What we know:
Largest sheet of chain B: 2 strands, antiparallel
Number of strands of chain A: 1
Strand content of chain B: under 5%
Radius of gyration of chain A: 25 Å
Oligomer: heterotrimer
Structural class of chain A: mainly alpha
Number of helices of chain A: 11
Structural class of chain B: mainly alpha
Helix content of chain B: 55-70%
Amino acid sequence: MQIFPRTLNYLPLVAAVGAALAGGILTFVVWYYFSPANLQVGYTPEQPIAYSHRLHAGELGIDCRYCHSSVEKSQEAIVPPTQSCMGCHAVVRPDSPLLEPLRQSWETGQPVEWVRVHKIPEHTYFDHSVHVAVGVGCVSCHGRVDQMEVVSVEEPISMQWCLDCHRDPGPFLRPPDQVTNMTWERQPGDDERIADVSEVRPPEHCTGCHR
Amino acid sequence: MSHDPIAEIGETHLLPPDTTFHHVTESVSRVTENKAPRGWWILFLLSLALAGCLLASLTYLVTAGVGAWGNNNPVMWAWDITNFVWWIGIGHAGTLISAILFLFRQKWRTSINRFAEAMTIFAVMCAGLFPGIHTGRPWFDYYMFPIPNQMALWPNFKSPLMWDVFAVSTYFTISLLFWYVGLIPDLATLRDRSKTAKRRAIYGAFALGWRGSNRHWRNYERAYLILAAISTPLVLSVHSVVSFDFATSVLPGWHTTIFPPYFVAGAVFSGFALVMTLLLIARTVFQMQDIVTMKHLELMNKFMLATGSLVGYAYAMEFFIAWYSGNPYEWHVFRSNRLAITVGEGGVSMAGSYWWAYWAMIFCNVLVPQTFWFKKLRTSIPWMFAASILINIGMWFERFVIIATSLHRDFLPSSWGYFSPTIIDITLYIGTIGLFGTLFLLFIRWLPMIAIAEVKGVLPHADPHHGTPGDHAPLDAYVAAESPAE
Amino acid sequence: MTRRDPHDPPAMWRSLEDKADPERPSRRAQAEAHDPDGFISADAIVSRRGFLTLSGATAAAVGLSGCIRRPVENILPYSRAPEYVIPGVPMHFATVTERRGDALGLLVESHEGRPTKIEGNPDHPATEGATDVWAQASLMDLYDPDRSQRAARRDGAGNLADAGDTTAAAHQAFEEALGARLEEHDADGGAGLRLLVQPASSPSFLRLRRAVRERFPSARFHTWSPLSSSNLRQGAWLAFGLPVHVHQDFARARVILALDSDFTMTEPGAVRNQRRFANGRRLESPSDDMSRLYVVEPSPTVTGASADHRLRLPARDVGRYLKALCRELASNHGVDFGAVTGALGSPSTEGIPEKWLGAVARDLAESRGQNVVVAGSRQPPAVHALVHALNRALGNIGRTVGFTPAVDPEERDQVTDLRELAEAMGAGDVRTLIILGGNPVYDAPADLGFAESLGDIEFSVHLSMHRDETSRRCLWHVPRAHELEAWGDMRAIDGALSVQQPLIAPLWGGRSEIELLAQVAGERNWRGHSIVRRTMRESMGQGTGFERFWRRVLHAGVVPGTAVAPGGDLPIREPEIASAVRDLRDPEGALGADDLEVTFAPCPKLFDGRHANNTWLLELPDPISKICWDNAAYLSPSTAAALGVENGQMLRLSREGAEDIEVAAWVQPGQADFSIGLLLGWGRAHAGRYGDGRGFDVYPFRTSTALGFASGVSVRPGATGYLLAQTQEHGSLEGRAIAIEGTLEEYRDEPRFPKFQTVEMNIPPLWDTVDYQGHKWGMSIDLTTCTGCNACTIACQAENNIPVVGKRQVARGREMSWLRLDRYFVGEDENDPRFIMQPIGCVHCEEAPCENVCPVNATAHSPEGLNDMAYNRCIGTRYCANNCPYKVRRFNYFTFHGYLEGDGVLGGDYYGVPEVKQMQFNPNVTVRMRGVMEKCSYCVQRIQEAKIRSRRTGEPIQDDWFTSACAQACPSHAIVFGDLNDPNSEVARLRQRDRAYLLLAEVGTRPRTTHMAAVRNPNPEMNG
């Protein structure tokens, strides 16, 4: 006699196929959605001071290195000390309410608590100076900062993403003097000023970045 | 019974000639239907307790770190991998009995194969646990699987550990399928015998609508044959691959070409031993002496004798090669770390840290099985029970000897050390035995522990030519009368 | 809080200001450590107190509340950026530290104000760029979490209690009390005012001492340090009648006879001695000459371990041996001792092998003017005097032996000095006692009763880094500044003047000796910086251009032209020597099971006990016995047999006039029979959380009459089974060609002899072999010059954030040191073996067995041939370590950082590491978590920095740009690291050397590290 309806005859088959599919889908979901490409990009934290890169870097056209002064000498590009800001803002808009935190930091000597936007894992050692030295533009990793009111992450700062460039740096190189240029485009005659890819040879082995 | 062809050709019966289909069905199925005997409960609760202690030690291990074990600097692997190899080895009998003996048409296997297969599955489960937890950061074990990831990194397919991952998982899958396919007709039997709707529903579901129709049987036989063919090479491959973990290294005592066959022989050896242990218990607890007869047991003992001798040969051979190769490091491992007999002015002395492990292994694995040359011992239930247990102890020591004694004194004397287990090492090992026991007892209680259909297949009256010569008694009627399943 | 001084390195003052806000950063430190992989960069852990309050380096999280992506992290830039500081770029400052009266010039690396690594100053004559084990480890003293943080006063209950709620308040309270006290003394001219000080090598100290005396004419200074050079000083005084330092040039000497002298490790000037000794034995080719070293000593030292011939002789018989040797030289080799000859008498030669007189004498006689005889500071003045006479008679003086004037001409015999003080204290003549540094209650001779009478003194002050045994008996305790925290100046024994420049503001507001002294002297301007500048200005006498001069000194670390070449042929005072030698009687009776000798030696790890809370040194294996976390009583195998004693059995030592002590026994091959070797510096009661009660205090057994050694000791064996944890349990080579040695003769016959012992297999590789273009890093280790001093091991630990694991874990065999020093015993006689030391780190095989077996590619080969280890990829299968023939891989069985602080049950965790200790971490090296494998990386962080620098500047990497931490520290220059593809690199040259061999070449691993066989220079006559 029948215990189950006929329709259930295909159940085992369906179950098997379903399980296989589920596994595949799960893998894909983790691989795609739990990756920096999805988790990092677009991160736009609010900063203690409504500092506008669009205004300073874009409209006023201040060079990146004016504030991020150690980018050519050190692994750190540094966020400028209050000092640097006060250099101008002692006279420019000295009493704008927006700059209150800045003035406080200047008086108390306490740092302004900026919020980190671009984050690399602690076990990864990234050196700004060497990238700048071979002519990797700021824009390649940080995006069009000069158009950002509030800075946000544009690139997935993932290992895969780093390796893509390290394996084929060519397209990302530019004349070293154009590094901070947000809108640079390859001009005829640039080529001899661009570092030779065979010379650059960025590291692809573990200790290149992990020490 | 007037006429007995088997006796005529001078053979003895696998089962008593008067065994009826009904009797087989009855004696196997009732175990799953009647209340469990006290013995079962005692064993079950005991195993469950041990399984609990497995859980506890696992929790501690992962919270504290593998430092909770005794592993140290020269001896980076110890009980963890020893247990892994031991369980995997045990897991071999199942497939061997089901697949290889099946292909060789060894009818006697029918009374024990279901048992052995179940044992295989559970043993592989226990084995699989260890590679997973022996790592320093188990939560990153998934790095070992080729899954696409944002690090643009793949596993290292050159590593024997990678091969293990694939070998073991394949073996497990196939064994599971094989076991399940074999179960289908019997599940149907249980379904049809079941009194309650619930039982009927559950067994029914897993019986996949088996009707015992001619077509069903034909497909079934075909599937079974194919699976047997697939899993036969696996029996050889799995443990060969496991042995590569050691054979492909540069370590004296590990770097040995004889390992693959040596490991397989040992695996079958230990597998049979454990089947024997469990079978003897179950057979007495559930009174199945007439289905698992002395003839079965004797045949198994002969098997152990054979594989035991193979293992003994392997020991002798790797020892000989160590000496013959003239490799001082290799020879040191065998002479000092293992054999450890030093003949000095102080006469003969056991100088060497692990001599006891080595000699325990020799006694259990080489000497004990040799007793099976004697029919008296081969057919003595108490002795074969003791022997089977001794052999399993010996096989554990074999793995420990290979792993620990090779590691603890290798190339540079400055880095020599000694391994001693911690309480966690011990509880974890005992724990896996508990887990195994729990699963196995559940299996005995809820599933036909002996392949009903297959045993019937080897009964005399299953033979179309059964009956008086010339008179083709209507077999179908006979059968129909006997067993409601068909 | 403090006025910024324009002359101080800005980084340190920044840190001082930061100390103002303790609250927020601690949360920071927690948060920052967050990392998806559970890894923490050193920066992250470190930045408590905002030492890294800079962009990039620091990040802070407010728990995990934030967006799903990651916890919100903050970037905290400077408010006012100090000049010079470029975040992420370390700075180096030259400074100096004191070691047994000598000054070691140092270069200290500082990351945003935290000193993280100490190297030798190449421009300093004492170090020439090398360092010793203590200099390397002194960072751990600086960051010792148990340092005293406040001035404290003894309360009613007799316990020390903070003298104020803040550091400043406490100091103020103390200063008021001190001021008041001193005003009283102004009245009586300092009667009853005594100061107990350390031996002075500081001009500022000498100047202030004068100032104090001017203010308090009747005040008295006493000097005490448990490891004094008094015997050397008096020996020299006897011989020459002048306060001089004696210098031996071990580089020029062809034959060296060391009498109970560990001149390469614990004696004064050890670092320079070791460098010169190594230079005298460096073999470029078979045609080179090497010196021959004879050592006569009771218990094995690293010097004895590198000897060509070593005689085990109880310390008390060394004088007898010397006399016998002189007699031999005088009678049979016509060596003229002048008036001394008579005094030699005819000493008994019992127990001294004939060859040690005949052959050695001949060797010395034949190498007149080109050998050195040196005696250890443990031996009595008479022995030293006779040694000077011998050197004179052999014509060594002026050639291999020279003199420089003593830094402090006043220094007297310290025991006498201390005894006088103790007696005065006992008599109640001391009303005020100011103890500057040291720990006399712990280390003063037991029979002087110093400790007992200290408690009764009305007003006593102790300046020290810890509230130690002495502080607890004083009325006042004042926290002392670490050398890296304080200004100072120091003269090396050759007169080289250096400025001690602080790297960081005093973490706990400590004061230096000179600062406190200046306060006693009543100087208004008592800050170290001003004191030193003033001393410098006065001594230099250059008013104009002083600033430029000062800056140049700070930069170079040593005042140009102050070092004088030792030399000068001083007239020798034979009569005085003769009488002294006459008094040097042969010891009566032979030593035996009931009349044993004990010798007291500075511990090659804890020194005199001042480093007793230094985890690096506590866990450092003893160079000879390889014991960690303990000291022990060393007995020779036959003595142990005679006494029926086994390893780890407790011994009760008793002796006339000293209280009994209990020490665990250790059977030490190479120890003189019936002489028990004891190491000082252990068994501290108040060292701190790590050092308390470690090992056994042997000071109670050390009396003022027996500071070096004593006989008449009896032993009562007690309970067995005391655990002594060793890092190397097996000392035999098992006849394997691992640490290969040969004689100079053998070497000249067949320069390539090591290569014949190691067969290089031509195993066809499984996959294509790489031919390494570009860089090809490699290392070379010379076993001939390596003494086994351990400096490399600690240097490696400091550079690479290597944790300590504690005694129990070491006993389990889980020590983490990347670079280990293997010590093997060679020879048949278990009582008298030869020693051979072999440093081993990862050898970076080109066919690395570890790489093939890692299932996740966590260890892989770099195009430059490095065997990379990616911690964050490692899952910890430990397969690589099993497959490593050299067993140089180390596994983090627990989170060993913070393990000592943890409960020891659930491992440790980073936050268990006291924050002040976290400050030491090298920010360029990942701090490893539990469950990952690690090993020597060839200091890959330094390689990467060099490559980045080369990329930035466009110039190719030079051999002298950088080297590995171990190579940089090595005083023997036995370890050399560099680029094998660079034809100009030293390592490339060394690899071609005939003595070079590949360890375990037969396994076919093709290591990048080559060892160079140890070549000994035995005297053929000494054999048989």
